[in-house]
Amino acid sequence: MNRLKYLLMLVIMVFVFGACDDDDPNTDISVISLEKGEKNDFDKYLENILTEPYNIQFLYKWEDVESDMNYQLVPATYENSIKMANLVKYLCLDSYEEVAPSDFLKKYFPKMFMMVGSAAYRNNGTMVLGTAEGGLKITLYNINNLDVTNVEMLYEMYFRTIFHEFSHILHQTKDYTTDFDKISSTDYVGGSWNDAWDGKSSLDAGFISDYSSKEPNEDFVELIAHYITNTEASWAAKLEPASDSGKAKLTQKMTIVKSYMKEVWNIDMDELRTAIATRAEKLDEQDLDNITIE
Ligand SMILES: [Zn+2]
To answer: What domain range is 54 assigned to?
Structure first.
């Protein structure tokens, strides 16, 4: 986007959001800042928990938003951006830290997160949960509707996207066996994944989600993202309605996924799943508004 358009956009934004001042108790902290380089307490906290240890940039200010302007977007609130930063650390990074080799996250975890307040929708009406550019920059939408009391929604709206994109980086770094591609080789539907399963279940064809049926790489990372965000019981319940052949394919694929993660990355998928579930259970004890540097 050229500079003039960008400035115009900011002016419109300031006008639109400025107009709501009277109804909004939190306007003393503006997420629309034209002054670069001024660090607030949250910026310092982010540096401490994400940038220094993991080289992760966490972009939440509108000036940082260089996102796809085909969608109409609003900035994330300061308060919810804090909650999300703490959630990424607590549910995701710290879970991997429990089971992964040291330096694993610093080397491979996505390096940039961008918060967007509103949801984004595609032309066909489906909601965009998150987008990633080459796995390096992950954009999370709908931050202003964050509900930290609903773990299932947190997984659905944000964390499966993060685990999904992170897993792309892993297989792009070191590929998995082509045996995986053979299991569903004739069933991938490419770009029509979104309407290929109307009235049919993608589970019956051996896919953990409709999106899995796009192509093997998506299938592979969807399995990881769903597996580690389910408990043993909820995973079994998820597979329960699948046909016998669907179940068999899912089991075969999971065997390959698990041995790949173990052999290549020295990560036990069951330990990782337990680490995440244990943390999720204690989520209500966490102070997600904290920005105090210890
Ligand atoms: Zn993907």
So the answer is: 23-285
